[in-house]
Design brief:
about 180 residues, mainly alpha, 2 domains
Length: about 180
């Protein structure tokens, strides 16, 4: 009887600690899937975006030139032209850091400056094991993939069914396309 009780207590304690995934920033995105593990502002759309698809969400990725450092080059060569309107949308490098469709003072003060002043001044951190590599993406819907298909939890260049495409696009010839009526 003592062995049975001890087994039950040990088993209960083990199972009680096994169910909750860690979430450092409390944004309800488990760290292993979180593109910005220490910034909860990436939890709701549109701020869930990662337009350069490097595994770091825009809200914590001021590394626009993809050299794994947030520095003056990112600011002067990429952010400033987008801010001044000299580099038109869609800003594939991610200068629209809050993903609201505009590069403005909020992107600079609330998102770029904290990354630029961080020690070390690098993007992230991200919980994705592929972070820092081109094509690193985890998605739930096509809205997470800049309009590209979301296939089996990863952004994809091709599709196999309409539900992988953002409406009103449909899957045609293996890609999401807008089909206009004749």
């Amino acid at each position: 009887m003592l062995v049975l009780v001890a087994s039950f207590v040990i088993g209960f304690a083990y199972s009680a600690s096994a169910g909750v995934a860690s979430d450092a920033d409390g944004d309800a995105i488990p760290d292993v899937l979180d593109k910005c593990m220490l910034d909860s502002r990436n939890a709701t759309a549109p701020s869930t975006c990662d337009v350069d698809v490097d595994g770091y969400g825009n809200v914590c990725d001021g590394d626009f030139d993809q050299n794994n450092a947030v520095n003056a080059t990112d600011f002067t060569m990429l952010f400033i032209p987008a801010f001044k309107g000299n580099d038109p949308s869609p800003w594939p490098q991610g200068m629209d850091m809050d993903c609201n469709g505009a590069v403005n003072a909020t992107d600079f003060t609330m998102y770029f400056i904290p990354r630029f002043k961080a020690v070390p001044a690098v993007p992230g951190p991200s919980g994705l094991s592929c972070a820092g590599q081109s094509g690193c993406a985890v998605c739930i819907s096509c809205n997470d993939c800049a309009g590209n298909p979301c296939v089996n939890g990863a952004c994809s260049a091709g599709c196999t069914s309409d539900d992988q495409c953002c409406a009103p696009k449909v899957c045609a010839s293996g890609s999401c396309q807008l089909i206009l009526p004749p």
